[in-house]
Each structure stands twice: as C-alpha cells, then as structure tokens.
Design brief:
With about 425 residues, the chain is an alpha/beta fold. About 35% of the residues lie in helices and about 20% in strands. Helix 4 packs parallel to helix 6 and helix 9 packs parallel to helix 13.
C-alpha cells in the first residue's frame, strides 16, 4: 500500500500505451502518452479491499426513509421558484450551455459576487461537447488550451502540440459538476430564450419560456413568455444552419448589426485562433462567444460537413431560400422553426431528428477554441461590469497564459 500511495502522489508521468513504434502509411508517429494528475495532498482516500467490496447499507434489507409525496413537490417547486425570483434580475445571462457557454459560466463563477444564470433549451446541457467529430468519443484539444483541463483535473493523452481526452463527456460532466456546485450559478435547462430585451440600443436581458412551449407556439394558443433582466448577456448559441447562431441572427433581424455572413470553409488552424481573437462585445450589453463568432465574422469553420445531403451544402442560395421560409425564434442555441409549406415538413423532420439528410452539424473535432473563447467572454463580461478582469490587467489570481495572449491580440478588434 505504501508503494501505491507513493505512485498516486507522485508528479505527472507519461506511460507509453504501445511497446511497438506506431506508424501511419509508413510514417512514424509519436507514441501516445497519458498525463496523470497528481493527487492533492491530504485528499487521497485510503484504498482497501473491504472498502471496494462493501456498501454503507445492507442491500438485502434496504428501505428508504418514509416521505410524503407532497413534500417532494413542495421542495422542488419552492426551490425553483426562489431561483426564478433571484435570477429575474441578474448580472450575467449565458444563453446556451455548450462547451463555450459552460467555460464562460465557470470562469465567471470564480467571482462569488457575480450572479450567473445559464439558459439551455435542451433537457441535457452540454451542446455538442458530449462527443467529438462524426459522433466519435475522443476530444482533441490543441495546446496551450490543455492548461484549462489541468485546472479541471481532467486526464488526457499528451502529444507534442495537442492532447486527447479519451471521451468528450469527461470534460462536459466535470465542468458542469464544478460549475453547478457554486452558489452564485443557476442552470435553467429546458428553458428557451425566445427574444432579447433591448432598451436604448443596449441589450438588457432575455425573454424566456419553457422550451416545450416555444416548440409548440403554432399548435397552441398564445402563451406569453417571461423575462430575465441582466447587465450582460453572453450568446453562445453555436453554429451551422438555421438552428445555430440565433443570438446574432436576432440582432440582424432587429437592425442592430448589418449582416450574418456565415462561416467560411474548413481551416482548423485559422479557425480556432480567429474564434478566440474575435470573441467580443458585438453590441452594447451582448457578448458573442464560441462558434457563433464564426457565423458573424465569416471565420473558417471547425470541420467539414460529414452527413450525406440531398443538395450541395455550399449553395448559399438554397440556404437563403430555406431561411426565407422560416419564421425564426431565438431559443437558446436553437432556432425553433415554423414550417408553412407542407413540402418542407419532411426536411424539417430530418433536421430535427438528426436523420442522414440533416443540414446541421455539431461542433468540430477540437474544442480548445470553445474553452478559451468562453473564458475570454467571461472576462469581457467582468470588464463590462467594472470588475477585475484579465483583459486590462486588473484581475488578481491564476490566469491561463493563453487567455492573456488572446486578450493582447484582440484589443483592437474588441474596441472596433
């Protein structure tokens, strides 16, 4: 056991996964290595056979403590209603709980005086960060964004210029568990942001509704929404097709920005740098982060379309015609559409159901840009709130080196 304890508390080590030298078409490849995070002093529990083979209760005669059903209902209702009252007027609202939105909220939550509400239309937050490209499991993160993974204590296989998490869900579940444990954060999942609050040319919050209500406005009578006022709104609604970039699309439809040109073709090296560099306050009161940045600035996309299509995806006239037939609603990372022409109903079903003829794709195979863009958006929000931040050098604490570099590179863009 002494040997095991010594191993668990030692410095990070690299372990070769294969004895033979790997190659691809005759080209030697560096062997994969595993970075093992050192155990925190005094926090490593003792390990024994009895601890791993027994439970703190008798499974043969297990019974729960009695409770009235009404108590369960009252506890859930009281706590949720109190959260709605608390966050009806808050500091920052993050719209969309994908990798960028979660990273932003996590960074913001480090300041206990900042109240953060995260709105996600899906029951399950995380966006496309549960899987890598083409529904594969691994998450690739280019250096130096791996330092954010070190902060979260997430293990990874290390290569020269990038690291690989064995399953993307490790990042998403870890950051959510750390974020939601903080007292100044509330996640409102299954809640849609239907519109923006705009006063005097400044975004001042979001218009909210239950996601299921937003999806069924056409099938039910008018169901009015609610509101959530905020000093700063961070839009992290994702990318691609009519369901993505809903925050900036709404800004265009109400005349606050001129255009949303959409993404350029794939160029991963250019794309990730551009997304971090161009993360900024796009209009007073609203910061854009993550892949939504690529939509508004025409930056290169993260990866090509992988699904089979009935028509050429690069034909912009088709996309424009498709958008003309839509009546968009801003819904927290999604654009719940109202199809009017019956001939398009089948296509709509394919999009919503993820069938092979989908015109939508999820996030690309590398996620470092989402993490760092989210962190940068958080510090932009702190700056807007007049609080210490990494962008003007007033932040006191541990600042990731890549965040400092991003701030230095983007000052002119953010002020433009």
């Amino acid at each position: 056991m002494a040997t095991m304890a010594s191993t668990l508390t030692s410095k990070p080590q690299r372990f070769a996964l294969f004895d033979n030298s790997p190659s691809f078409h005759g080209i030697p490849l560096a062997p994969a290595t595993l970075r093992v995070q050192p155990a925190k002093s005094g926090s490593q529990p003792s390990i024994s056979m009895s601890a791993s083979s027994s439970t703190p209760y008798d499974l043969q005669s297990f019974t729960f403590s009695p409770i009235k059903e009404s108590i369960v209902s009252r506890e859930m209702t009281r706590r949720y209603m109190m959260d709605m009252i608390t966050y009806a007027d808050t500091d920052v609202v993050v719209v969309g709980a994908g990798s960028a939105g979660l990273s932003c909220a996590y960074e913001l939550s480090k300041n206990p005086s900042v109240q953060v509400a995260v709105i996600e239309q899906s029951v399950s937050p995380g966006g496309g960060a549960w899987l890598g490209g083409q529904l594969f499991s691994a998450m690739v993160v280019r250096k130096p964004a791996h330092l954010f993974l070190d902060e979260l204590d997430i293990e990874y296989d290390e290569q020269d210029n990038y690291v690989v998490i064995k399953h993307a869900a490790l990042f998403t579940s870890t950051i959510m568990s750390k974020l939601l444990a903080r007292p100044n954060v509330k996640l409102f999942n299954a809640v849609a942001a239907e519109d923006l609050i705009v006063k005097g040319g400044r975004v001042g919050g979001v218009v909210t509704n239950w996601a299921l209500v937003s999806m069924n406005h056409d099938t039910q009578s008018c169901m009015d929404p609610n509101v959530m006022e905020a000093k700063v709104v961070v839009s992290s609604c994702g990318h691609d097709g009519p369901f993505g970039a809903t925050g900036v699309k709404r800004l265009k439809s109400i005349g606050m920005i001129d255009s949303v040109p959409g993404m350029k073709a794939l160029d991963m090296n250019t794309a990730e740098d551009a997304i971090v560099r161009l993360t900024r306050e796009i209009v007073p009161g609203m910061i854009v982060t993550g892949m939504e940045v690529a939509e508004i600035d025409g930056a290169p996309r993260m990866r090509p379309f992988l699904d089979s299509l009935d028509f050429p995806v690069n034909d912009r006239t088709i996309t424009e015609e498709l958008m003309r037939l839509l009546r968009p609603k801003l819904v927290c990372g999604k654009l719940w559409d109202r199809w009017r022409a019956p001939s398009y109903y089948k296509l709509n079903q394919g999009v919503a159901g993820g069938l092979p003829h989908s015109i939508l794709q999820r996030m690309g195979p590398t996620f470092g840009a989402m993490m760092i863009s989210g962190q940068k958006a958080a510090h932009l929000a702190l700056k807007a709130l007049g609080l210490p931040n990494a962008l003007d050098g007033s932040y006191v604490g541990s600042i990731q080196p890549e965040l400092i570099l991003a701030a230095a590179d983007s000052a002119e863009v953010a002020d433009a």
